Batch of 4 targets.
Target 1
Amino acid sequence: MKKHLLILSAFILGSSPLLAQKQDVEKKFSSEKAISQFTYLASDELKGRDPIRSEMKLAYTFIAQELEKAGAKPVPGGNGYYQNIPFNLSSPPTKGSVQMGSFSFSQGQNLLVLDGRSFSGNYEVVEVGFGSAEEFAGKDLKGKIAITNVGAPNKFSPNQLFSEGRAKAVRAKEAGAVALIERFNVPSVPWQLVSGFLNRPQMGMDQGETSNLPYLWVEDVKNQLTGTNLGNATVAVEGKVNTKIDGRNVLAWVEGTDPQLKNEFILLSAHYDHVGVGTPDATGDSIYNGARDNAVGTVAVLNAAQYFAKNPPKRSILFALWTAEEKGLLGSAYFANNPLIPLNQIVYNLNIDNAGYNDTSIITVIGLGRTSADYLINEAVAEFGLTAKADPSPEQGLYDRSDNVNFARKGIPAPSFTLGFTAFDDEINKYYHKAADEVESFDMNYAQLYWKSYILATQKIANWSQKPQWTAGDKYEEVSKKLYGGK
Ligand SMILES: [Zn+2]
């Protein structure tokens, strides 16, 4: 009797197309394999997956091999399963000083040498306002130093300060300048915080041997340096070391089955780097394993590749494991600016990045409520007994602080599928960017639900008859229309 009931209910359940999908994911998902990948990626052997350390090679080699074994194909235009990225590691000079009029600046105190090589001498200083293209136009800067304010009008967030600064360094170099000095005069960002963070090696793009222009910040919170009568500056920057780093994004793809929809790609992404080796904690552990941030996400993408290579959906899927997220979203930015698949063919990005979790009954989706495909994520996680919840602390701006933003800015709907958290509380801070973020303290039942519901959500979206859209009025809706031609 019982047995018959079981068979009957299995028949009824099995005939539901929704449950059939879930059962198929369940059946084909290898927990053992996923857990062993997770354990290896977060092991001490990989030394915290820091792109500036040699152990990073172990991480990207492993990821590429797993994608190959899964049966996902290398992306044309890549270096096998890799996209090579030329990074430059710029270390602070051993000594740095600038004298302008009665003002003196010294490295690490009120001066930060951010890029370029060692140089010294006495140079004329030319005022260039905020350093916009218009302000640089027509200025003779040959053999001179350009001085500007940091940022741009209404652009003073840390990210904007850096991106504006990089653009100005290019303009200054084109105008023949020997260096760019920016006056740091943003009241909302404390100089102490900035100098503490920046007076150490910084990773950025390698602009070539001679093209990284010396780029300096001087503290000028009282706006004393503004004016056209700055005269000359005497500069001495010594012992500046630049190291080339061979960065690698790891990429693969699976072709869709629908003759039309296969030209559209769903991008599944997670950064695989972490912060490396650092200050030891109370137990003496100095290896920052980054199990939550973001080995767990890397494993989700690897297992999605494993599943979809054997069970391709209608749309094609691009798998991407980004490097150097922790250095400033560098790997994903490089791909967004040098895409191996045209960006207007990437219709959706389901990214993963994680700090930790404090609620194993939910999946937190950063950006839930901003795209038309959200209900499919809700459905998928519900089938695994979980509930999808939106970002509990939008004021933290998490959406715009991880790799997904590099695609959102181009117009691609790009939420992040993260471990469940209801607040950035002690339970999160216990592990977030700490040596304690290890596999041993991870709830493996939850990990499996997380991985499987990610695959199911992807399957639903990749088979959906409609193309995901931004919610009307979203700040990225306009750029999205431009990218996809208003369709
Ligand atoms: Zn992360």
Note: The CA atoms of residues 225 and 449 lie 57 Å apart.
Target 2
Amino acid sequence: MAYANCLQILKDAQAKGYGVPMFNVLDYESAAWVIEVAGEEGMPVEVGFFHGFAPSFDPIAAALTVKEMASRVKAPIGLHLDHTPDYKTIAPFLKNWDSVMIDGSSLPYEENLALTKSVVEICHPMGVSVEAELGHVGSGASLDDIQNPDHYTDPKKAAEFVAATGCDSLAIAIGNAHGQYVAAPNLDFGRLAEVRAAVDVPLVLHGGSGIPDEQFSKCAAMGMSKFNVFTDLNMGYVEAVKKAIAAGADKRGMLGVMLAAKEETKEVIRHKMRILNPNDLHLYR
Ligand SMILES: [Zn+2]
């Protein structure tokens, strides 16, 4: 054990009623810490990678790190390629990745559908699963992106989109947004219930940082399966480093700082994992 395909991970979560966090990682440390926590909690997790992070974490090194560290824990660990605009961006990752996201959500509906379908047709024969997005998850810095239901996912269109594209999972917009939120999000749970009833593929919540814990848990309880988290981990990591230095851990140089920051950052990861596990399952301890 325990590297696993993300789609298998999500289907299990959907069947058993818990949520799987996907943490986008920037370096060896954050990847290894996410996997360590998954092992300690006995719950699956996905490690996310964004192509724009390549200057910080070489993609091949990232994939090797995830697969090696995954082999040391019982919990299933997935590796997912987050937001990509086209197949050209995906192609170099296919040697090492078996789960990708194609994001055509800012395109008109028909163009999003055609783009997603074309990526699915290339990826499925290679055993690569594809996440798509319908409705548009915008920026937490924009009140309109958070509160205007015109950006939210239409349940009827979602059913049509999944059937027409063959995508394996679907990211939806219900008042969630990327980055830090200018106003506290108030997720549209009625819409979540409608989309959940309309499609059978695992649903994905992007912008999982800054959403109040009870709303996060409620999404998991209502059948949302994957929860993308970057900002909370990224900022939590920085805060942990600052705190370690303020406490004098830097007297031992980077070794002291990283060892102190590790425990603090792991708690940020653990907290997200626990609020997505309302029945307190520990399936792989
Ligand atoms: Zn996203």
Note: The longest strand covers residues 77-84.
Target 3
Amino acid sequence: MTRTAPRDRFAAIKTATLAHLEQHGCGCYPYADGSLLATLAAAAGAATVVELGTALGYSAAWLASTGAQVHTIDRDPVHTRQAQSHLARHHLADHVTLHTGEATDILPALAAVSADIAFFDGFAPTTAAIDALTTTLRPGGLLIAGNMTLGGQADQIRAQLASWQHTDLGETLLAVKPH
Ligand SMILES: C[S@@+](CC[C@H](N)C(=O)[O-])C[C@H]1O[C@@H](n2cnc3c(N)ncnc32)[C@H](O)[C@@H]1O
């Protein structure tokens, strides 16, 4: 039996991101599986999501497509400008708030959103970044940490989240914030 690869609703943003990173040299690879993010958001009934690492809006589009309100952060204004236009083209601009700046400067103001999902996709994850990001997450909320094989802090991050229900999918770690 032959299997057909599922169609990616936001393939155009993924393609634009891959073309952009070649020219810009920014290394902002789009998340590998946008539909996984949307499936997790739908299963969690997520109303609010905080994302670190917008790039051109590929993962934000998938997360917002579930009806969640997404706060997404990127330090590069070229990225957030382009994300704005991609999200508008997909009629998702009203579901996404773009924050341009350094995550550590922006996340404290987002602590009050009490997000259902916090998604890390900002290059190599560090314990400090995960700490800052998860302050925005409500108890029982889901952390999705991407890029776990980058940067060499995976073991420290797993230790940091040892008391959280978690599972390791290789590149991505899922962990539920304790009540
Ligand atoms: C891997 S890309 C994000 C890909 C995006 N989630 C997608 O699926 O298309 C990482 C992005 O995170 C941003 N970034 C990395 N570290 C950051 C930080 N400390 N604060 C804000 N933005 C950051 C980079 O500018 C880059 O655009």
Note: The chain has a mean pLDDT of 96.
Target 4
Amino acid sequence: MPTSDSLFARATNVIPGGVNSPVRAFGGVGGTPRFIKRGEGCRLTDVDGRTYIDFCLSWGPLILGHAHPRVLAAIERAAKDGTSFGAPTEAEVLLAEKVCALVQPVEQVRFVSSGTEATMSAIRLARGFTGRDLIIKFAGCYHGHADFLLVQAGSGLATFGTPSSAGVPAGIGRSTLVAHYNDLASVAAHFDRFPNQIACVIAESVPANNGLILPERNFLRDLTDLAHRHGALMISDEVITGFRLGFGGAAARFGFTPDLMTFGKIIGGGLPVGAFGGRRDIMQHLAPLGKVYQAGTLSGNPVAMAAGLAALEVIEAENAYERLEQMGARFGATLRQQVDLESLGVALTRIGSIFWLYLASSQAPIDPAALDTASAARYRYLFHFALDHGIYLAPSAYEVGFLSLAHDDDALNRAAGILAEGLKTMPPLGATAP
Ligand SMILES: Cc1ncc(COP(=O)(O)O)c(C=O)c1O
């Protein structure tokens, strides 16, 4: 039995579903998850010795690729001094200074250990600051697994959201209003219906958890203005886009100024770090200065701070964003040269080093809640075709692909060739899995 298969069998006995985060289980694509032994640059090697060019990159954090020597050296140096103190260290100050210098709307920042903690804490802060309870999120956007954010869709514009997970009390969904991305009127309707009650709007400013959806012209700026006109805060969830689309994330890219921003993934250099930050007058409402409580035993962990700082320094030194943009453009062009996406009913959406193949239509969607699920069988085929040929995509049709600085031309050309072949041979729309 391949070692991945036997490890998965053992894992399912002691870990629910065999995994510590559900989408790793290959539930959306079938088959057994690959257990990974090591990663280097843009490549992963599994426990059976098979090697893959990796486009999942730990779901986004590894913008420098796996095991970057400068990040590893920083981790080793920091760990030798001790792994956690529960008292402040210089590393926290250095990373906070770097974030505040690089990200224009962030005057103060607090570190946590995951993106979920970052969004959950930013919303508590927005509620504490405004003295209001309701929040607006967008259908199909993911902000981590805090109860009040596990709310996907309401039935109708002004309907309260219903929880999309068992275990979330129905009452919790009542504080979360659900609007539609790229549809300002759906947000305005909530503000009209609940005057002076809405604390904030939280947006995955470029939604990348239910496909990759781009904002229509001025949507994010108009959304921020609308929130401000109603005395609410704008929270830009940049857990994926922060430090990936550029130092200023989606906010700088699309020219709007959020009050708070949330980070994760890249900011920790591959270790567990999240952060939220923004206007000083808002951040000062956090304990110990203010009345909004927020804390964490391992928050600002010195080893994780060192990894994050090293990653940001390499990004700065290597002119990363310009290079990633060029790589992304070349990768897309190479793929398009080899396969006529339009005639196959496929759309390729890309922004910088994030890409997504929508297999249900040649028209890219503008609402993350409006994806056609008819392409699931196509994605299952494409995913396994790619995996069998040494390309590791995210095991879900609705998750995006990432490039890293470690993806060289050889790797990108090889991957484009295999994906083109997979696209040409995949089943027609609506077919059941082969
Ligand atoms: C936009 C966004 N926000 C929040 C989160 C939650 O982050 P974490 O998984 O680190 O808790 C994610 C995770 O993928 C995310 O993509």
Note: The chain is about 35% helix and 15% strand.
